[in-house]
Amino acid sequence: MNQLMLRTAAHCGRWTAVNQTIRTNSDMAEFREIFSKARHIAVITGAGDLATPECFSRHPSRVWEFYHYRRELSLNAQPSPAHRAIAECEARLSRQGRSLVVITQNIDELHQRAGSRHVLEVHGNLFQTRCLSCKDVEINHKSPICPSLEGKGCDEKGCDGLLRPHVIWFGETLDSQILTKVEKELETCDLCLVVGTSSVVYPAAMFGPQVASRGVPVAEFNTKMTVNTPRFKFHFPGRCAVTLPAALARHESEII
């Protein structure tokens, strides 16, 4: 178990006490006042993935067929107003000497396409491949990715190993370098937003509560309440494409 998970697990013992004092509310004016003073905002988005390494070992062609479908959907999708609101807010705050980081479980690159620059992809990237033999990781936006898997292995000289999506599947360990960066952001942020996540995929489900355990305001944006809602200061129900742009819009106190 990595250090982030150990430290987060240690927080669990304090969650009961935290739950007794936090009263979740939907006061946008109060949130906006806190937002106007925040210097380092962490935005947690997305959900977990579906496949397993065992499934890929048994049926690589079938798994790639599934991921080809997902890649095509992502390539044809457009960033939502929520994606764009996060990206615009990051750019605006950077001009003020403030920062916003996106910590996402999504693998579709929609945050980057919306303009977000500081993105930590906890579960990898749908448009990167990793060789099972030499571990080389390459960016790949080909559509389709290849006519068939036969003869389409790793391009590294002398390797020709089988390529797989460079994403984290159930049962796999998260990238320790990414987790170290995530841990730093969670330990230094002074406002946290949990956007559209189910709060059931671990360890990412512990990120928001870990921040809340430090006494830092956490705001949940979701169509429904989750198991972590009682641990957060704010819960804003509804579609994130509607609630998030209003929450992250320019505050009247902002000069730039």
UniProtKB/TrEMBL annotation:
Keyword entries, A-Z: Metal-binding, NAD, Transferase, Zinc
Residues holding Zn(2+): C131, C134, C146, C159
Pfam families documented for this protein: SIR2
InterPro entries: DHS-like_NAD/FAD-binding_dom, NAD-dep_sirtuin_deacylases, Sirtuin, Sirtuin_cat_small_dom_sf, Ssirtuin_cat_dom
SUPFAM superfamilies named in the record: DHS-like NAD/FAD-binding domain
PANTHER family the UniProt entry points to: NAD-DEPENDENT PROTEIN DEACYLASE SIRTUIN-5, MITOCHONDRIAL-RELATED (PTHR11085)
Protein name: NAD-dependent protein deacylase sirtuin-5, mitochondrial
Biological classification of the source: Eukaryota, Metazoa, Chordata, Craniata, Vertebrata
